[in-house]
Amino acid sequence: MIPVLLFELHHLGDAVLSVPFVRAIQQENTRELHVICRAGSLEVFRKFLPASQIHPWEPWWELQGMRKLSSVLRLITLLKTLRDLQPSQAYCAWADSRVHGLMRQTGAAQTFGFPVNEQNFYAHERPWRWRRMKLGQFLGHFAPLNQPLQRIDYQQSHLTDWQQLTEAAGLRWNPVTPWFQVPAHLKASAFRNPGRTLWLIHPGGRLATKRWPLDRFQRLLATTFQNRTSILIQPPDSPALVAENPNHLSLTACDLDELLSLVQSADAVFCNDSLVSHLAAALGKPVWTIFGSANPNWFAPYKNAQRVIACDVCSYRPCIDRCVYSSPICLEAVTVEQVAQSLPSNAALG
To answer: For the segment 155-199, what is each residue's pLDDT rounded down to a tens digit?
Structure first.
């Protein structure tokens, strides 16, 4: 087996989007994939790879103080481990010259990725991102990719980047869902009302600029979802929804496995732009997603772009969570009435 490397140093939802690429490498069965990822994404890759082929590392540029120093020291050890593998190829789906430089440092003979330029660099239209893009272009001269790719359309989905990367690797692109094989959650399944749609509602999100106000979720529960059988997932990053209705069951997910099984149990999902939206899409579920600061053209859940709920009122969007206002007007502009009109009727889903 020929060792190859994948660098995916973003967050959990982004790790989920890499799954079709990971599966394509595995199905080919001639290359041994090693993934370099953040510790928070380990659970995703453990579903496909043994622990020996997953290398957690927190990028130093995201850290402060002693954690930054620890990251640099860990990187020295990590690069030695990766060089010892003698990888033939390294891959990255992001336009990030820092990662491209690391790919070159591993000794990989071929480095596949998207060089930093206006077509490939997310949100370059923001002044601070423009400056980062220019710095990335400068750094890219010192460690250029020898297998550079170019996004066909600046507004294409990030999943299409993964398709381009997969095909550049000489592999068959196959995003057919489900991407994960998981059983349904027993307690959630037992709550199902025969003949009725079982909804899963998740009000969380890693960042405040991606979380629609909780009181609006609560108002929807009292109106649009009043007579709909619904599982309410209590998020770890915000206050809990209150289940005041016998049609609503409140549950928590302790880990990714339990969260996946809860999503698997549902017929439809309603959530913020978050990990849950991408898990739902990966399991082939229809998911209605509220978008705030991010560009849905890039990051709408797979095959669910038509179900995105957003209000394009902010000229700074996408802001990469650097909101210039005292509160995120992009989310506040999304009204309960707009969401209610966007969601299907009970009859539409059975």
So the answer is: 999 999 999 999 999 999 999 999 999 999 999 999 998 889 999
Q: For residue 350, is pLDDT > 80?
A: no
C-beta separation of 156 from 163 below 8 A: no
Q: Where in 182-260 does DSSP place strands (E)?
A: 199-202, 230-233, 248-251
Residues 6+ apart with CB under 8 A from 283: 177, 178, 179, 180, 182, 260, 263, 264
End-to-end CA distance of the chain: 48
Paired tokens of 216: 């609006």
Q: Is the peptide bond before 235 cis (omega within 30 degrees of 0)?
A: no
Q: How far is CA 158 from each of CA 17, 36, 164, 165, rounded to the nearest angstrom?
A: 8, 19, 10, 11
The C-alpha atoms of residue 166 and residue 28 are separated, in whole angstroms, by 11
Tokens of 240: 């809990």
Q: Which two tokens stand for residue 135?
A: 């710095």
Mean pLDDT of 201-220: 92
User: Residue 1's CB: how many other CB atoms inside 10 A?
Assistant: 8
Residue 76 has a pLDDT of: 97
For residue 291, which of 328, 256, 259, 240 has the smallest C-alpha distance? Answer: 328
How confident is the model over 298-340, as pLDDT tens digits? Answer: 999 999 999 999 998 988 889 888 888 888 999 999 999 999 9
Secondary element (H or E) of residue 119 = none
Residue with tokens 């989920």: 16
Q: Count the Cβ atoms, other than its own, within 10 Å of residue 222.
A: 12
Q: How far apart are CA 237 and CA 172, in angstroms?
A: 38
CA distance 206 to 238: 9
